[in-house]
Amino acid sequence: MGLPDYGFYVLCATAVVLLATQAIAHPVEFLQVSIFGLTQGAIYALVALGYTMVYGIIELINFAHGDVFTLSAYIGTTILGFFAVSDGSFTAINVVALLITVPVVMLIMGAINVTIERVAYRPLRNAPRLAPLITAIGMSFFLEGVMFFWKGPATVHFPDLLPQTSWLIGGKDGVFFGVKDIFVVVAAAILVILLAVFINRTKLGKAMRATAQDRDAAQLMGIDINRTIAATFFIGALLAGAGGMIWGLYYNTVYYQLGFRSGLIAFTAAVFGGIGNIPGAALGGLLIGLIAGYSDGYIGSRWTQVVIFGILIGVLVLRPTGLLGMRVPEK
Amino acid sequence: MNQAATAKSPSPPRRFNLRERIRDRETAVYSILLIVAILFPIVDIYSNDGGTADVSQATRAGTFVLLAIGLNVVVGFAGLLDLGYAAFYAIGAYTYALFASLQLQSSPLHHAVHVNFWIMIFVSMFVAAAFGAILGFPTLRLRGDYLAIVTLGFGEIVPQLFYNFDNWTGGINAIGLIDQPHLPFWLQGPWSGDGDFKVVQNFNFNSDPVAFYVLIVILIALAVILVNNLYKSRLGRAWMAIREDEVAAAAMGINTVTTKLLAFSIGASFSGFAGAYYAANIALVSPDNFLFLVSITVLVMVVLGGMGSISGVIVGALTLYFVIFYLIPGLPQNVTNFAGTIGLSDNVANAISDATTRLNFIIYGLILVLMMLLRPQGILPSRVREQELKHAAVQEDEAAVEMSHQG
Amino acid sequence: MSQAAADNILELTSLTKRFGGLVAVDNVTFNIKRGEVFALIGPNGAGKTTLFNNVTGLYTPTAGRVVFDGRDITGSKPHQVARRGIARTFQNIRLFDYMSCLDNVRVGRHVRMKAKVWDSLFKLPRERREEERVTEEAMELLRFVGIQRQANQYARNLPYGQQRRLEIARALATDPKLLLLDEPAAGFTPQEKVELMALVRKILARGTTVFLIEHDMKVVMGISERIVVLDHGEKIAEGPPDEVRKDARVIEAYLGKSA
User: Fold this and answer.
1) Residue C124, domain extent
2) Exposure of B185 by Cβ count < 10 A (0-12 exposed, 13-18 middle, 19+ buried)?
3) What is the DSSP string of C179-192?
4) By the 8 A CB rule, do A274 and A321 touch?
5) How far apart are CA A101 and CA A97, in angstroms?
6) Which among B92, B129, B61 has a CA at the least distance from the CA of B298?
7) pLDDT value at position B2?
8) Under a CB-based contact definition with an 8 Å cutoff, are residues B115 and B100 in contact?
9) CB distance B263 to B133 below 8 Å
């Protein structure tokens, strides 16, 4: 292990120590902030997975991915508007509406992402490196433009459909959490587990892993590269779509630039966990969500972006492979 | 082989002519731009009875042109995608603003500093270049994607940092009343409302649109000369070699990391330079002036104009500025009028004109995607160059055939 | 340094390159003498280009040493290797497509130029003079390989044979002591192959040692003085063409592959 790696681990250890002192000194507050960070992190994990899978297979940062995440919430509110849902209380209609809407939105986003790949990225697969990068950022901007055009610059309300039940543990100044928090973490966990099963047990999953490792060899084995890449985009968008809906249900508010901000954070999470590494993205998402939470709570939310950016630079300088990754992000 | 053919290789005069013709084409474009730049304010002010609003607009457009020329060095020459160009713009602007206003009075320093504009503009440039080097250093060893996202992140946090350190930078209250440049003398004329030509002593720019316009035209001219010099030099070729094929470039002895760092740094210095100018021009800097939208606007200008082509990006910048900042804002009114004349109801007309105000982002996105898919070389000048080169080859071949028939 | 060693321009000692579990170059040792034409042959996938890449710094050897002109350059970066005096062409032709032929060759001169950023930025007289000189040198090289008429043509527009020649001109522009040619005759017509061999002899006459990978036996036998044969990353034969051609292991390696 080289000197930079040591530096990386030293910084991680320092952070852990600082947080531990907080945990011991003010356990209740620490727990509260942790819950907040955990729920954020669960959603970031879902988005980070999409980034890491696409990067793993075609070595391209899909800038538009964060906007796919946001767009799903926009589309979700529209579809939910057709149901007689109760905004603010938990009814059977809510459940029905969600059971229908969430899968539908996920599939729509999957289709959109596949189309984006087909239209904007595939034609440029052999072009000089710069071209697909520019199309990617162009696509991101286009999607933001669509959302801006659709609902304007103001925040958009997402109906509050989840159970409102919540608990206060440990007395008046205790920890406050509710069904919603549990929902976010459990839903994300289920999706990640489903993804893991898919990647490891199914033929398509194996094809995706093979193509990511060595595209030429995979092709020689008879794997249809185009289909595999399209599938990767599809699945990534399914996760992002779910993530967007979950975000909407939990935070009840979205805006057109949400994907831009969240995308940067989620990508940092993917790099932190190890780019191209699927468990790494999930782990990275959780950790970055927690770190963002701690930063919001202890340093101040106006510094959180700076902290996250610092982590991105730190990882790239000290340990580009991230926590779990094997692939070095070099040419 | 034929004696006459081997004795006379394709004659130098013909090849000299060819280069002459290419140079002439570029010179033609620059000459046109220069003539238009000189005539524009004169014609416009006369036709507006002394109103200088258009000149102000043109000055803003000129600032974007300067930015586009700088970003072209990074993206067009070296092929590095910088998505946070506005960060260096901000750094340049704030560097000047801090040292040329009362801002530092209210900072922990408790002492306002007022350094001469003509010195500070170079200081801004070097500070921006330094940050370019610092930012580029960790990322230029990695794939281009990483530079892109790191610059994106940088472009986000720099304005944020200027907000956060508000005891130094005024944060959300911005820095105002920024010192204006002054010169020992200046030429006044009918455009300044006084009527006669006269030489003025101790001229203070004082937000005078014409003075700033003249300045930006001179700065652009200087930038074009310098960047052109680089383009036709050892460094310029090294940049393009890296853009074309980094492995082959390294095999030819080019240190790709330092060469890329130079591109990134020099590009940043242009942005810093422009930032100082901007701060003096608007006399107000706030973090809101340097958001991602600015970075992406400049990028779209470069992509539209033709990455790598200096005259191309100038035309691209002017075109996009005209469309985004002049045509489209005027569109709602025009659309409403037009809708009225063809008989659409008021509601529909308003809805359409309302929609047009929200088109900018979609247009940017479409331009980037469509240009890459359909016309990656950009608009006019690049294509001229390509045809020129193809035409040249045909001519040379004809000459060779002619010569081999002469023996 | 002994006389024999001083005659060696390149010495590979136990050169090994591993990619994970795959051994691409396995304990290869040989020397190339100054001023000779040395060929590297072997069936497809034998590790020839990988060996080239280890010499030029594109890969770092897993084990072993590369000594060039008396200096250990093992693990040096590609641009450092070029500066020391090794130039190369590529199996799949890597030209600068959207630059003119003249510019391609002028990039080759990069290592031997002195212009700094400041000089270029302000077009100082010293830089101007250097540019003129470099342009003339580049034109001279284009004439040397016979494509001077294409000087202002985009490299991508050239016919295949001329592209290969352009790549050689670009490599020569770095003033190399050792020139590595990776399958320079691939896809050539018999006439072009004859011209290539003449070109290699001209290059030799200029004082550059030539090290080439080639599949065409006529070309190899026609110009090489010594040959090394690689199979599955291992050196299986070394010597003058006549000896190598009769070597049983070599015949088996080739025949075995085509069976």
Assistant:
1) 35-57+76-258
2) exposed
3) EEEESTTTT--HHH
4) yes
5) 6
6) B61
7) 41
8) yes
9) no
Segment (H or E) for C106? helix C101-108
Q: What is the mean pLDDT of residues C202-219?
A: 92
CA dist C210 and C201 (Å) reads 9
Q: Which fold has domain A3-318?
A: ABC transporter involved in vitamin B12 uptake, BtuC (1.10.3470)
Over residues B8-36, mean pLDDT: 64
Q: What is the DSSP string of B317-356?
A: HHHHHHIIIIIHHHHHHHHHHHHHHTT--HHHHHHHHHHH
B278 pLDDT tier (thresholds 50, 70, 90): very high
pLDDT, one tens digit per residue, over C21-48 is: 889 999 999 999 999 999 999 988 888 9
d(CA A15, CA B358): 44
What 3-state class would DSSP assign to C10?
strand
| List of chain A residues whose C-beta atoms are within 8 Å of the C-beta of residue B153 | 264, 268, 308-309, 312-313
- B3 vs B194, which has greater pLDDT? B194
Q: Residue C224 class from Cβ within 10 Å (0-12 exposed, 13-18 middle, 19+ buried)?
A: buried
Domain boundaries, chain B: 48-376
pLDDT for position B171? 80
Which of A124, A134, A151, A309 is the best mutation test for B, with the most CBs of B within 10 A? Answer: A134
Q: State residue B5's pLDDT score.
A: 39
Q: For strand C209-213 and strand C178-182, is the pairing parallel, antiparallel, or unpaired?
A: parallel
Exposure pattern of C226-237 as b/e (b: 16+ CB <10 Å)? bbbbbbebbbbb
Residues of B in contact with C154 (CB under 8 A): 386, 389-390
Residue B198 φ/ψ, nearest 5 degrees? -155, 155
Position B16 pLDDT exceeds 50:
no
ipTM surpassing 0.90: yes
Nearest to B314 by CA among B66, B27, B75, B84: B66
Domain ranges in chain A are: 3-318
Residue reference for tokens 């101007």 = C128
Alpha carbons within 13 A on the beta-carbon side of B154: 28
The answer to whether residue C253 is domain-embedded is yes
Query: For position B23, what pLDDT does the model report?
Result: 62
Taking the C-alpha atoms of residue C138 and residue C148, their distance in angstroms, rounded to an integer, is 9
Here the CATH number for the domain that contains residue C104 is 3.40.50.300
Report CA dihedral (A273, A276, A279, A285) to the nearest 10 degrees. Answer: 40
B244 contacts in C (CB within 8 Å)?
Answer: 95-99
- The closest alpha carbon to B291, from B155, B95, B93, B171, belongs to B155
How many cross-chain Cβ pairs, A to B, lie less than 8 Å apart? 141
Q: What are the distances in angstroms from CA A2 to CA A327, B40, B141?
A: 16, 61, 17
Considering chain C, what is the average pLDDT of its residues?
Answer: 91
**In angstroms, rounded to a whole number, what is the distance separating the alpha carbons of residues A148 and A16?**
40
User: pLDDT digits over B125-168, tens only?
Assistant: 999 999 999 998 888 888 888 889 999 999 999 999 999 988 88
Partner-chain contact B251 C106, CB within 8 Å: no
d(CA B26, CA B15): 17
Positive or negative: CA dihedral C99, C105, C110, C115? negative
Q: What is residue B378's three-state secondary structure?
A: coil
Tokens linked to C169: 């001109």
